[in-house]
């Protein structure tokens, strides 16, 4: 087995759990937030900077690397770790979500998905076998099965057909997987917002016995309450001795509420994307750096933060860099936002250790959102 | 006096000289290349990275900082050093070159220059007094007098009038300068490509007794031979106990040929600007990273370089980042190019120390340009 999940402790106040995931490139502490390095780089950051903020694992995108520079090239370079100079664990997605998001530019059949590249319009094809081949070439520690992510809203029959295809595709991924000893392949639970379909999906995937499971088809436009509801009835069906991953989630509330429902792993482009738009997550809530009120604000972005940005620069300077469209702006704000989420997850792990995650949630929500939403 | 120039040694093979310039924020070794931080940031770089590559002094632009964020704001922040978190010396230009480059957008009178901001089109005014006030507010170690930079080509009468106004303006800058004990104001020699006008300009400026002199009006489109010719008859007229600065020059050949003619300081946006366009200066000459031949080139950008980029990444990866328009591309290539020029100047200083700058020039030109241009 490529990975091993070690359950350290369950929170007495919630469904949260503290664990360690042992991978070929090192151990990660869960629950964890994974920064996204779409094109073999976490945008604006170096690997050393990610390590300095204690990023333990990053995610990279199969769809993007398949199209550019191509997985064969990365394989020739010695794999994705070596290509991008990152020696800690990497999780790759399957490309499924990206190709389905292409809308009219793609055509789904039982065999796979034909689509047009967003880069040059060329005709491309991804299937369970191809997505697995690509991820084998990349050499990620954790791979994802090629799934069909149903949109929201979608009717019952559509979602049922889609989840059943996802199971058949998961089987094909498993059969095509060449390196089960060094790369762990996760199954993805689908089933939309329908409880019995989620149960069916879990049941079918458990039969295939994956080393980890993702809850897919969430964070696709549904209200957060609905996402939490789906997690509440889906996560308990998953085996306790395997890691559980919620894809594409990165807002502080969704991270905490996901952990409370038993999720171990998260990823999202949110912290780096909003950083490039001048938006920051801070202990005092969201800061939009271009606001005029920060023009002569010579205090740090977040007075409670000890990241490189907050230790060395003022809001006035960060505002100036943003307005002048300087690359350093994207760097400094990305540094802060990633550090913020990674630190948040450290605090979350401590709160689980102390059996007080619900108390922590209340304290955090009050400070960050100014009110306590119901759990 | 804000600064003191210490002449260590003159090269026996050329007009080059080795020196140290003592400034309020530390000592710099000359001849030196100064990275440009136009808008209070050397594009894509942090101060720590600049220090790691031994950048001893940087330049920042009065024109840009005057317009955005404004010198009053930077003064309130505690000065430019504190605002941008750089504690080593800073040289600021006067804004003269930038406003004259605006063409139809500016109007010159004896009083100063009225112009339209390139940012918002607002009407603005810079004069000797204003440019001095701005630089006093910024708190740079070395300030430049507000000069009129004649274009190339320009007729004799135009250049003569322009240099005489530059002298009058230099006097007004000196009179307006509030901090001569902590900020050194340099005079700028004009006179275009006319020997007697250069002599006149030097004569007039020497009477004003500046702590340093720049040779202005070069690198404005004239052939390199002509620039070298002007330096040959202008630099020897300048006092030996003061630093000499050639503005806007950053190509390896022009740096070496400037040093050979007695120049001590240089600045240019070239290394960072071409980096953002995927072009690199290496010991093997220029590399255009997007070229297809680097697609599967898993060797460093420059095998003889020990910069962060060359120690950790391959040409194939750098090419990928550039083609994917990743911010890390600008970072890694800027790092390399700045490191290259700073290292080149270290080698140049060693060659002066060893009385072999002409030999060094020949070796370098052979390797970089593939041929030995006449000195």
Overview of this structure, please?
The structure is a homodimer. Chain A is an alpha/beta fold. Chain A contains 15 helices and 16 strands. Chain A has helices at about 45-50, 60-65, 70-75, 80-85, 95-100, 130-140, 155-175, 195-210, 225-235, 250-260, 270-275, 310, 315-325, 325-355, 355-370; strands spanning about 5-10, 15-25, 25-30, 30-35, 60, 90, 105-110, 115, 125, 140-145, 185-190, 215, 245, 265-270, 280, 285-290. An 8-stranded parallel beta sheet of chain A has the order 4-14-13-12-11-10-6-5. In chain A, a hairpin with a 6-residue loop joins β8 (about 115) and β9. Chain A is globular, with a radius of gyration of 20 Å. The model of chain A has no long low-confidence stretch (mean pLDDT about 95). The interface of A and B includes residues 39, 46, 83, 312 and 313 of A.
Q: How many helices of chain A?
A: 15
Uncertain residue ranges of chain A: none
Average residue pLDDT of chain A:
97
Give the class of chain A from helix and strand content and strand pairing. alpha/beta
Span between termini of chain A: 36 Å
Biggest interface: A-B, 34 and 34 residues
Tell me the strand order in the biggest sheet of chain A.
4-14-13-12-11-10-6-5
Strand count of chain A: 16
């Amino acid at each position: 087995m490529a990975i091993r999940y070690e359950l350290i402790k369950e929170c007495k106040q919630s469904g949260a759990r503290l664990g360690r995931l042992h991978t070929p490139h090192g151990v990660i502490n869960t629950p964890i937030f994974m920064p996204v390095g779409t094109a073999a780089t976490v945008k604006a950051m170096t690997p050393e900077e990610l390590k300095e903020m204690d990023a333990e694992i990053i995610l990279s995108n199969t769809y993007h690397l398949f199209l550019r520079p191509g997985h064969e090239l990365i394989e020739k370079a010695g794999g994705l770790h070596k290509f991008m100079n990152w020696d800690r664990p990497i999780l790759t997605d399957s490309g499924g979500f990206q190709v389905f998001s292409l809308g009219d530019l793609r055509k789904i059949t039982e065999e796979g998905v034909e689509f047009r590249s967003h880069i040059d319009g060329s005709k491309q094809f991804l299937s369970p076998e191809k997505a697995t081949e690509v991820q084998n070439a990349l050499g990620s520690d954790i791979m994802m099965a090629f799934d069909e992510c149903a949109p929201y809203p979608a009717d019952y029959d559509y979602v049922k057909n889609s989840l059943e295809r996802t199971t058949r595709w998961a089987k094909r991924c498993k059969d095509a997987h060449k390196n089960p000893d060094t790369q762990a392949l996760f199954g993805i639970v689908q089933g939309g917002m329908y409880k019995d379909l989620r149960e069916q999906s879990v049941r079918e995937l458990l039969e295939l016995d994956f080393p980890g499971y993702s809850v897919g088809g969430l964070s696709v436009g549904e209200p957060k309450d609905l996402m939490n509801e789906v997690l509440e009835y889906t996560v308990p069906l998953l085996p306790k001795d395997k890691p559980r991953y919620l894809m594409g989630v990165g807002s502080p509330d969704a991270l905490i509420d996901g952990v409370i429902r038993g999720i171990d792993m998260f990823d999202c482009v949110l912290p780096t994307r909003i950083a490039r738009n001048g938006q920051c997550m801070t202990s005092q809530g969201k800061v939009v750096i271009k606001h005029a009120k920060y023009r002569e604000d010579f205090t740090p972005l977040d007075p409670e933060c000890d990241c490189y940005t907050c230790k060395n620069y003022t809001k006035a300077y960060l505002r100036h860099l943003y307005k002048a469209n300087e690359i350093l702006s994207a760097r400094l704000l990305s540094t802060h936002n990633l550090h913020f989420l990674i630190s948040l997850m450290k605090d979350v792990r401590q709160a689980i250790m102390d059996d007080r995650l619900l108390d922590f949630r209340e304290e955090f929500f009050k400070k960050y959102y100014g009110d306590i939403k119901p759990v």
